[in-house]
What we know:
By secondary structure, the chain is α+β, with helices and mostly antiparallel strands. It has helices at residues 2-7, 9-63, 66-71, 75-93, 128-135, 178-259, 268-291, 302-316, 339-357, 411-421; strands at 97-101, 107-110, 140-141, 145-147, 150-160, 166-175, 298-301, 324-326, 334-337, 363-372, 375-384, 425-431, 435-443. It folds into two domains: 2-176, PAS domain (Beta-Lactamase, 2-Layer Sandwich); 294-443, Histidine kinase-like ATPase, C-terminal domain (Heat Shock Protein 90).
Amino acid sequence: MLNFLTKSPRWLVIGISATMFLVLAMFNLGSWFFLKRMERHLDAELAQRLTSVAHLSARLLESNDIPEFYVRGDELSIKVLAEPLLNKVQSEVGVQNIFLIDRGRRALASTGQLFAIGQEIFYLRDDSLLVARAWRGAVVTSPVHSLEGSLFKTAYAPVRNSLREVSMVVVIEANAAFFEIIDFFQRTIIVGGMISFVVLIIFGVMLSLAMGLFLRTEASLRRAERLASMGQMAATVAHEIRNPLGIIKSTADVLKSRFDNKDHPDELFEFIPSEVRRLNRLVSDFLSFARDRELKLEKGDLTHTVQKALAMLHREHPKNAETIQFDGKINNLVISHDADAMIQVFLNLLMNSLDATEGRGAIRVSLASTVERGNDMALLEVADDGPGLPASAEKVFEPFFTTKTRGSGLGLAVCKQIVEKHGGKIVAESEKGKGTVMRIYLPME
Length: 445
C-alpha cells in the first residue's frame, strides 16, 4: 500500500486532504449541533424559570387582594400596593422587569417606575396570541425577542380575583443576552469552516508540491548513489588502465623511431598514439568526474586562460584549430579560478564543437562582461554552426549522456561540475540545423 502511494502521490494527497476535510467537517458540525443543543437547553431552562416566577408573582398578588382593587376600578391603589411586591420579587429572583397589564395592554403597575398608569405597551402586540392565552388562564412564555438591540424573554401569567376570574396579567421580562454569545459562536463556526476549507485547499496544493519535490529528491539521491558507485568503479578501472596506456604509447614511439621511413611516413604509426590520446582523455574524464577534486582558486585574467587553452589545441590539432575564431581584445576579466580546471572545460567545449562541425564549420569564441541577477559576471561563449544538439539543452549535461560512437558522455558533466564549483553556471542554447551556443557565467572580482 505504501509503495502504491509513493508511486501515486496524487492519490496520497487526495487521501490526506479528504481525511482532513472529513475531520474538520465533523468537528464543525459537532460544534454546531452542540451549540444548538445548548441553545435549546438554555431556552428551556429560562422558560421554566420565568414560568415559575410568573406563577409565584401571580399568587403573591392574589394573596394581597390586588385584583379586587381592579374590580372596583381603583387603579391608583393597585399601583401603590402592587409595585412594592413586584420590586421585591425582582430583587429576589433577578429578572429584568415585572409589570401588570389590563386587557388593552395598558400598564397598571411596574417595577422601577418603568411605565406610567394607563400607558399602552405597544411591543406586546408581537405576543398578542400569547397574551390572549394568558387571559384565558394559561401561564406562557414567549420566544427570545430583540428590542433596541437587546435580547429578552417574556412570561405571562393570569392574576385572578376572588371569583376566579382573570382580572389582570403579570408580565415577567428576563435578559437573554447570553444568546448573543451563542449566536456569535455559531457564526464563528460557519466562518471558521469556510476558512478551514480554503486553508485545506492551500494545504493540499502545498502538500502536492512537497510530495513532488520529495519524490524528485529521492530519485535524485538514488541516481546520485548509483553514479557514485559507478564513479568509484570507473576511477579504479581508469587508474589501472593508465599504466598500460603509457607503455603502449612508449612502445609505439620506439617502433616508429626504428621502422618508420622519414621519406615515406606510414600513417599506421600515428594510429596507436592517436588512440592512446583518446583513451587517455576518456580516463581523465572518468577520474575528474569520480574524484570531485578540490580546486585551487587564484585571481587571474580569464582571457589569458582561454588563450592558453587555444594554444594547447593548436599544438594538438593544428588543422582543426584553424576554424576557431577568438575575440581576444577583451582583457582585465579578473576572476578567481583554477586555470587548469577551466582549461579542461574550454578544451572540452572546443572539442565538442570541432566534432559537431567535423572541421568544416566556423567556431566562434568570445569573452565579455555582463550583469546577471545584480552580480558582475564574466561571460564566455563557444558557438558553432553545426547541426545542433540532438537532445534538450539540460539533458546534455547529464553524466554518461552521449550521441557519439566515441566518448564517455562525461565531458559536459565534468564541465558543469567544475563551473558550478567556481560559483558560476553553464547553459546551452541550440536550434536544430543552426548550431549550438555554450555560455559559461563566472563571478568577477
